[in-house]
Design goal:
Chains A, B: InterPro entries: Arg_biosynth_ArgJ, ArgJ-like_dom_sf, ArgJ_beta_C. Two copies of one chain form a homodimer. With 381 residues, chain A is of the alpha+beta class. Chain A has eleven helices and 13 strands.
Chain lengths: 381, 381
């Protein structure tokens, strides 16, 4: 099912031979017009050269024209050579597109500590055919993901398309996650940058798969204005909707995951505490294991809430699982078999009311399976 | 192998029928003399009644005479009834021992959210035979632990004996961990309390199994002075040695673990940052999975260090695994097969120099196995 990019955007990919599997691994996303942009990048101190380079570009405030992404090699912890290789990837992509290197953002994802095969990128870039469709790009940026992740929305005639990859090392600020949202709406860069921070905090930063934070993550939005102006609030809402859909798709496709976990916390003292509390439940290994075993072990939900830093009195907390009340300041009688049965679903929802205030938030995760361990026990050997 | 308690301490256990397995599950630890004591308890907001009660006793500064522990039921999230049941357990134990309830600390570990069967505790307490040996107590406090955990030391003629249980939900501040250290040395309570905080920070709080923080953890030390005075610094060193040995035993016996992980970080800007950094590596699911697979994937170690909050420049970091240099500001050539072979050991050591300052610390963890998932997927059902 081909997803058409917003006006003025084109994308494409090729097999450059970076992934050992021989699958597509080099991709370009290009705007015909200079685009306003905003992004959020990993806070990891061992951030890859592409992240350092991106921060530098971001600081200039200049518009962006293109992104070049390679998958299969994170070009991280590759020493000073890594910085040269990253700059070279930008130069090669800029040359291919007739742009200046400063107009091209780089992104890399894959194994850490292996020198980037720049000569393969040089050979691959001319082969990339640019089309108005998102799909080949979405396919080429995957690593251990099982499915491509694309979402779209319309807003007052303008369009928003988002493309992302997961799916391990997924945890707030940020995940092994690359997300690219593009829109043909016009929006001032300052407003876009300010809105983007909140959108990322409420969506991508609420995804957790394993608590590890990757060295290469970023979430980018580009707005090229090819369609024209739309009400900014409507645009931001559409961007947030697309980001949330991608966040859920990333969590659903977490390494080894068999189901999506959606945690909704209400009644927190603040929205920040609600976000923390929801994330703590989505990230609890004990609860994720219980989720895998269809075990309605709500004690682990309460323990994770208690460990989140959010303020509450356990005697005022309420917990529902798939709509079934399990706890209300104390043990509730419930049909354990029915609750376990209700957990055999593709999406499992935890709802918790902390009984403190008005703060509400969601977080997205998945179950912890034996498959996760197998995938990650044997990644490089 | 029977471990004799320090002078003036006795302990014992019985099968009260709290554990479904029918194994010993109710235990007493008693000092003939009033003991100076110090403890550290979980920071979890959903802390169990036993923790709230212990905090109250601690605040009075009065000496302690005994601990009553039940395993198999955490008496947590059991509503207001849970508080009454906990107080009742203390009263029953005090009656059995001829003490005041305020002289008895309670501890519970096991499943959350199930009312405590106090009548079984009442029936079990009179059956407990008190002896000068640690072993029956060490056996009775276990839950999913595979082996009892006891450690001992001598200091200037006085003795220190420590008894602990793990082994899931193990993460700083605190773990699903109960630890009881007893000594017949004399020490002023104020000095003991101050020293204990640092000892716990450097030992039990550096253990991580799954990042979850339990609702019932505590680490207690009792000093009854039956032997007499010893140099305080020597005593604290002995206590720390025993605590460290127990911490390693807890990590080694983490749920599903096949090996012990010892992470030593040096060259951090501060000791606190070294502790954080070491803990982040010991707690990284990705690295723990690689450890299980004997995969020398040092990129995950670097990524975990980068995620710890400790300051460093990746170009100055060095990483060794089992003494083999893998990374020094960039990729080092190493024999992957030999490194993988070296990981097939009961204890695997990671050493990292952050190149920033003089801060050093250790953390203790274990590998993440398919067994962990199996154990925790089916705990209550």
């Amino acid at each position: 099912m081909a997803v058409r990019l917003p006006r003025g955007f084109r994308a494409g990919a090729t097999r450059a031979g970076i992934k050992p599997s021989g699958k597509p691994d080099l991709a370009l996303l290009v705007s015909g017009l200079p685009a306003q942009w905003a992004y959020a990048a990993t806070q990891n101190r061992a951030a890859a050269p592409s992240i350092h380079r991106g921060r530098g570009l971001y600081a200039t405030g200049a518009p962006l024209r293109a992104v070049v992404v390679n998958a299969g090699n994170a070009n991280c912890a590759t020493g000073e050579r890594g910085f040269r290789d990253d700059a070279r990837m930008a130069e090669l992509a800029a040359f291919r597109l007739g742009l200046a290197p400063e107009e091209v953002l780089t992104a890399s994802t894959g194994v850490i500590g292996v020198p980037l095969p720049v000569e393969r990128i040089a050979a691959g870039l001319p082969q990339i055919e640019l089309t108005p469709y998102a799909d080949p790009f979405a396919e080429a940026i995957l690593t251990t993901d099982l499915v491509p992740k694309v979402a779209e929305a319309e807003v007052a005639g303008a369009r928003v398309v988002g493309i992302a990859k997961g799916s391990g090392m997924i945890h707030p600020n940020m995940a092994t996650m690359l997300a690219f949202l593009v829109t043909d709406a016009w929006v001032p860069q300052e407003a876009l940058r300010e809105a983007w921070r909140g959108i990322v905090d409420r969506t991508f930063n609420q995804v957790t798969v394993d608590g590890d934070t990757s060295t290469n993550d970023l979430a980018l939005v580009m707005a090229n204005g090819a369609y024209g102006e739309v009400p900014p609030e409507a645009l931001f809402q559409a961007l947030e909707g697309v980001a949330r859909e991608l966040a859920k798709k990333i969590a659903r496709d977490g390494e080894g995951a068999s189901k999506l976990l959606v945690v909704r916390v209400v009644g927190a003292a603040t929205e920040g505490e609600a976000r923390q509390a929801a994330r703590a439940v989505a990230g609890s290994l004990l609860w994720k294991s219980a989720l895998y075993g269809n075990d309605p072990n709500w004690g682990r939900i309460l323990a994770a809430l208690g460990n989140s830093g959010a303020r509450f009195d356990p005697l005022r907390v309420r917990i529902h699982l798939q709509g079934i009340p399990l706890y209300a300041g104390g043990v509730l009688p419930f049909d354990r078999e029915a609750a376990s049965q209700a957990m055999r679903a593709e999406v499992v929802e935890v709802w918790a009311d902390l009984g403190e205030g008005e703060g509400a938030a969601e977080a997205y995760g998945c179950d912890l399976t034996e498959g996760y361990v197998r995938i990650n026990a044997l990644y490089t050997t």
